[in-house]
Amino acid sequence: MAQITEAQRIARISQLLADLNKVPPEKHEVARLPWTAGESLLRQVIKIGVDEVLLNPRSHRIRAQLEDEPEWERLSSDPFSEAAQRLIEHHVREARTAEEFAALKDSLVSEGQTDPGVMTHKGLLVNANTRVVALRAVEDPALRYIRVAVLPQTAKQDELALLELRLQMQKELKVDYSMTNELLFIEELSVERRLSNGQIARELRIHPENAKKGANEVALRLKMLDLIRSMQRIPDQRLRLTFFNSISYEQLRELHRAYFGLMDQDPARAQRHLESFLLSIAVGVTPVHQLRRIDADFMNDYMLPNLEEDEAIGEFAGALVQPAPQSHDKPPGIRELGGDPDHDDERSHVDLRNLINVVTRRDKRVDVPGTKIVLGRDDFTDALKSAVVTGIKEKRRDATAEDKLAAPIDAVKQATKQAARAGEAVAAVRHDPEFDIRRRKSLEAAFKKLKRGIRELESTLSKAEIIER
Fold this sequence. Notes:
The protein is α+β, with helices and mostly antiparallel strands. The protein has helices at 6-20, 63-68, 72-75, 82-94, 98-111, 129-136, 157-170, 179-192, 197-204, 211-232, 249-263, 267-282, 288-291, 298-307, 317-320, 334-337, 352-360, 377-429, 437-463; strands at 30-36, 39-49, 117-119, 145-150, 365-367, 374-376. It contains 19 helices and six strands. Strands 1-2-4-3 form a four-stranded mixed beta sheet. Strands 5-6 form a two-stranded antiparallel sheet. A hairpin with a 2-residue loop joins β1 and β2 (39-49).
């Protein structure tokens, strides 16, 4: 069906509202919408054809997908054109699995809509985009309609964005926003809608029990988005935002802590840590407990030795981890971040950026430098993943052994600190009347127990020939 014009759409909606007003008010369907904090908006609901409404190009369920879409850069200048709407429809459908989409369609056909959708007076959907796309796939013309509440002409874009969010928050059974779409939503609310971090936290119900904690979390998530965009620019072929949906906030939180913890002391190591993390998730290593072991030295110390032992790839490992022979421009932002992969320390002989290029680019051929041998990218990626996973196990074993050997030293150091603090604490209260005889007796008993412990430690150290008695 050909798309109708904006004027035709506005006239059609106005006529449907006028027809509705000919019916007694008690027969009208009215939707109560979460318009502002603590205040609802009552709007009349009409029934309109699914081909007569516009899918929302700003829907936060597909923002990341559209940002990744090469065609969208051209079509976004006219997001309500037929070509743009077809592309939006494609991504709305693809946001769910085929099974989920089929289940939604069957439910709409057999049970109908539970709640009405919401749209502007011009026919632009605020929500219910997926329902419309599902009903467009229904052949029976009698079922190709949707119930929608019509917003007033005075509704502003800021209000529409918050309304979409509040409608989403009301429905526990709706598909959650992907991580990248939620981050883009937070960015929009902060930059375009000028909401404070505290307001955003309240709208998204982030730590609702603690306003300060919620505001801090929003600030952190905005930094997480910046970190993702930095990683997008590391390979020659920019990574899609949706590439990062395989990781979680917990993983990004730990990466952020480690990365910015290194930035002040050693920006080059911070950049290498970032690239090591990206290479790990690019080959499919995503569990939090595994990624915790990845640091700036991991690929040299643990991944490479295991890659060199791989039956199929091992003999080529040295050549494959070296810098690519051709020169290439550095990704924008690396110099600002302080890292330069071409000027790392001497022992950093694994070219992480080149490996990231190999496993993320579209070309499925991997040329072995200095030879005519060509490997399959999938085989190379699998070998890298196996080397990373095995390296993580080895690093965990090494850390356990080191912890065990260092434990006696750390324990004595901690005991020394605690003894010094105890002395300071006694000096602070010795003349306090409330530091009574009962407390003094308890302290005396604790001190005698400490002395026994010191004597036993001294005996153990003497038997181990660590000290002389």
